[in-house]
Automatic annotation (TrEMBL):
Name of the protein in its database record: Putative transcription factor C3H family
Presence of keyword Zinc-finger: yes
Keywords of the record: Metal-binding, Zinc, Zinc-finger
Pfam families reported for this sequence: CwfJ_C_1 (PF04677), CwfJ_C_2 (PF04676)
Superkingdom, natural source: Eukaryota
Length: 453
């Protein structure tokens, strides 16, 4: 499903909403409409597309009041805009009627509370003038303490914390801010304590929240956050090749899009059908997402294994998780079944040459193996792991000052397949037209296995 922004456009689909204006409460940086805010609160769409503000704007998913699913908001720029902002966006939503309750309720680690929870239902003209003169365009401030929150009596907000100050240590409103700039709360937040817990004494996310719900001592500072959560928030980049919201994403490489993951052709593929499983959200590793989100990953893995099995092949999955990494991608490379039995030995020999030894474990299922792997991330070390046919998982922790070849997994398989020339992806680059043909060919072969078709 594709949405494009044309002047005066209004599009609407069941459980995916498209409106001509932005609802109030969503952002201070652009004009907004309180009527649409009320409408969106009522219908609670899974996707909300806006097309006539002339700017591109992708918000982090937010939870809904009295509904288990999250909403993703996307504002599209005008077609042919001078700033070359994104004006078209493709989504591949799975019908809710075909999803399990667990799949519908899945949330990503960067899911926020509903922005409408804090927006006043009605405001006086005087309040409106304050908003227009406020001039605050900080892209994060609206999460909890946007100007719309201000009420006639500032004292009502006096005991509430300023999210901007707690999260970053500073607030652009300074002394004019109606919320508390509390250094102790800031310190607790740095130790991984949930903002909602600090602000209200409780958290509506409950077990879905990835942060602590108790005050932490100094010694707990480095172990309190979910592994990788600090990197998740700090490493988001508009320049990211893999972010679907980025103007730099090479959308012609995309094969299939699910709720939390999408499948794409690898750039300079080692062999035919070499693909990447990529989180839709900007995450440092596929192990950083909440366990509920892995349903989409398992679907792609199982589908790829069935697809390759039909061709007499097995699939090896591997990922290089760097503490300086940006957007995660799990590589999936099919190899002949006759070669797959030698994969563990090939990886171990390569490790021996580099002077380390893999942690080798065997599991009955992919999910069991990944549960083990998710416990191995501490945010202070990089790691490499490979999932080998038969349930074997190979894991290597890499110390911060130790150099490790980022293309290690690809190089090992290039040697196993006697394709040393393709060990470097740049040696097997294709033109955009060639890549489009390869993607279309794969789509046609993979269609009957695609979990999102």
């Amino acid at each position: 499903m594709q949405f494009a922004s044309f002047p005066g456009s209004y599009l609407g689909v069941t459980k995916e909403a498209a409106t001509s204006d932005i609802p109030s409460g969503l952002s201070d940086s652009v004009g907004s409409d309180s009527t649409i805010s009320e409408l969106v609160q009522e219908i609670k769409p899974r996707y909300h597309i806006v097309g006539t503000k002339g700017i591109y704007y992708a918000r982090e998913p937010y939870s809904n009041v009295d509904a288990v699913h999250v909403t993703r908001f996307i504002g599209l720029a005008s077609v042919g805009n001078r700033d070359k902002q994104k004006f078209i966006h493709a989504i591949s939503p799975t019908p809710a009627s075909t999803m399990s309750s667990m799949e519908i309720a899945m949330k990503t680690t960067n899911t926020t509370l509903s922005p409408y929870t804090f927006v006043e239902k009605s405001t006086s003209p005087k309040d409106g003038s304050k908003r227009s003169s406020d001039g605050i365009s900080d892209s994060q401030h609206w999460r909890y303490d946007v100007s719309q929150k201000r009420q006639k009596h500032g004292a009502e907000n006096g005991n509430k914390l300023c999210f901007k100050f707690v999260s970053s240590g500073s607030c652009p409103r300074g002394e004019e801010c109606y919320f508390r700039h509390n250094s102790d709360a800031r310190e607790q937040s740095m130790r991984g304590v949930c903002f909602e817990f600090l602000n209200k004494g409780k958290c509506v996310r409950g077990p879905d929240c990835n942060f602590k719900h108790s005050l932490q001592e100094e010694d707990d500072r480095h172990s309190s956050r979910r592994p990788g959560s600090e990197n998740i928030r700090s490493s988001r980049s508009k320049e990211c090749w893999f972010c679907l919201s980025s103007p730099n994403v090479e959308s012609h490489l995309i094969i299939s899009i699910g709720e939390n993951y999408y499948l794409a052709l690898a750039k300079g593929p080692l062999i035919d059908d070499h693909v990447l499983i990529i989180p839709v959200e900007h995450m440092p590793s596929t192990l950083s997402l909440a366990s509920e989100s892995e349903v989409g990953l398992f679907r792609f893995q199982n589908s790829l294994m069935r697809y390759c099995k039909n061709q007499g092949k097995e699939v090896i999955f591997f990922e290089w998780v760097s503490i300086r990494g940006t957007h995660a991608n799990l590589q999936a490379i099919p190899i002949p079944s006759s070669k797959a039995v030698m994969a563990v030995k090939a990886f171990n020999l390569a490790a021996q040459k580099l002077g380390f030894k893999f942690i080798e474990k065997k599991f009955d299922s992919i999910s069991d193996g990944r549960k083990f792997l998710s416990t191995q991330i501490d945010g202070n070390q990089s790691l490499f792991y490979a999932e080998i046919p038969g349930g074997t998982v190979l894991l290597h922790h890499v110390e911060e000052k130790v150099k490790f070849p980022a293309q290690f997994g690809r190089e090992v398989l290039a040697g196993l397949l006697n394709m040393a020339d393709n060990a470097d992806w740049r040696n097997n680059k294709h033109s955009k037209e060639e890549e489009m043909k390869i993607v279309e060919g794969f789509k046609s072969r993979f269609q009957e296995y695609d979990p999102n078709c």
